[in-house]
Amino acid sequence: MTITIRSAMISLAASLLLGAAPSHAHHSFPAEYDAAKPVKFTGKVTKVEWTNPHIFIYVDVPDETSGEVVNWALEMGGPNTLLRLGWKRDSLKVDDLVSVEGSLARYKPHLANASSIVMVSTGQRMLAGSSKDQQ
């Protein structure tokens, strides 16, 4: 084998090994969220982004004091994590009414890491694959 082919094979093997690293390792929960600041609210789903490395859902929630509607972004686990927890791509749809529990973001308003989601219409509670649970 020539040196060029050997180098190419070593590079390919290294690339494959690096690509196999866990996807949840790209940030730590405590760096972005505060477990000591739980949040709980009910609102209507406005958007679902089923993408890697995390699924995000967006929920319109009426502010308790002003009555103004605020759109919250909720980080959930990755697609594979949620599939293992029983989720399907169409488990949440726009206009679904949900109750959410999670942890507030440290530095961004109206952002939380969801730990569970309850479908108000059925009472079904689903774990959200929170990165808090993976520490």
How large is the share of residues in beta strands?
35-45%
Shape: elongated
Q: Helical element count?
A: 3
> What is the string of SSEs from the N terminus onward?
HHEEEHEEE
Q: Based on DSSP secondary structure assignment, what is the total number of beta strands? A: 6
Largest β-sheet summary: 5 strands, mixed, barrel
Helicity, as a percent range? 10-25%
Topology:
Layout lengths: L2 H17 L9 H4 E17 L6 E7 L6 E7 L3 H6 L12 E9 L5 E9 L5 E3 L8
Parallel strand pairs: 3-5
Antiparallel strand pairs: 1-2, 1-4, 2-3, 4-5, 5-6
Description of the molecule:
With 135 residues, this protein is α+β, with helices and mostly antiparallel strands. Helices cover 20% and strands 39% of the residues. It has helices spanning 3-19, 29-32, 79-84, and strands at residues 33-49, 56-62, 69-75, 97-105, 111-119, 125-127. The radius of gyration is 19 Å and the shape is elongated. Residues 16-25 have low confidence and may be disordered.
Looking at this protein, list some descriptive labels.
single chain; 135 residues; alpha+beta; five-stranded mixed beta barrel; 3 helices; 20% helix
